[in-house]
Amino acid sequence: MLQLILDGEATHEQKEQFLKHHLDECLPCYKNYHLELKIKELLKTKCCGGQAPSDLVEQIKSKIGAE
Amino acid sequence: MELEEAPKQHYSEEEKQNIFNNEFMPHIHSMYNFGYRLTLDQDDSKDLVQDTYLKAYRFIESFQKGTNAKAWLFRILKNSFINDYRKKSKEPSKVDYQEVETYYNSEEVDRQITPDLRVEALKDMIGDEISNALNALDVDFRTVIILCDLEGFKYDEMAKILDIPIGTVRSRLHRARNLLKEKLSEYAKQMGYKTT
After folding, report:
1. What region holds the RNA polymerase sigma factor 70 region 4 type domain (chain B) (predicted)?
2. What is the largest CA-CA distance in chain B?
């Protein structure tokens, strides 16, 4: 369930139940949820956003032109 | 080459150029990142991405205009990686992950291996720790994290890109995240955090 919520795959009801009720009474889930959320956020900020080299873009465009 | 099972389209030269420039090229940076995370080498990544774009152009009539171009391109890149790149590389023979997954998905194992990593430790990981931890994962596990957490694909899109059932996407992702947490808790330990 935690994974479905994390990845935006849970239904509205599942989300409501988990975030508003379950997390209040289950410490392991509470801890794990915040940990997983933080890791997901870190992955997004630290491992994304690299730019493709501009010569790659040029090479592709010129090869397509030649086809 | 197997791509989406859409009926074959007919495009004029101008339409092809339009699709290529407006629907395919905007994903070049994500594609390069994906290639880099798979091969862990800049030159190999460039070759892989270039190869993928050339294939995409050649098979452009298998692509239905206005549908999910990013998923379509990612699928071609993933297939090229498996078919062309992996053969050339010296990577040891592939383990049967289905078997590994079944084993690791039993709750018993799960409880033992989930490390008690803390959010506070993560806050100090400002360098390359997370990137290194991701790169250290086996490529099949790395791939699901890239697709889900870096690129934001939904489970059904990932299932199509990887040609595996959604249930396998979910279990592989679960396992991948546990492995990533293990790596991160190793770093946390090195940084002086107690993880237990």
Report:
1. 129-178
2. 63
Closest CA to B78 of B15, B163, B150, B170: B163
Nearest Cα neighbor of B82 from B69, B72, B94 is B94
**B177: nearest CB among A36, A42, A51:** A36
> pLDDT for B63-105, tens place per residue?
999 899 999 999 999 999 998 776 665 555 455 555 555 555 5
Cβ of B32 within 8 Å of Cβ of A63? The answer is no
Domain boundaries, chain A: 2-66
Q: Which two tokens stand for residue B63?
A: 């692509």
Spell out the domains of chain B, with CATH numbers in brackets.
Answer: 13-88 (1.10.1740.10), 97-190 (1.10.10.10)
Residue A28 C-alpha, separation from nearest chain B C-alpha, in angstroms: 10
Residue of B nearest to A34 (CA): B119
pTM of the model: 0.85
Nearest-CB residue to B154 (from A9, A38, A50): A9
| A22/chain B closest Cα distance in angstroms | 19
Cα-Cα end-to-end distance for chain B: 50
A42: closest chain B residue by CA: B130
**ipTM for the complex shown:** 0.90
- Contact between B35 and B146 under an 8 Å Cβ cutoff? The reply is no
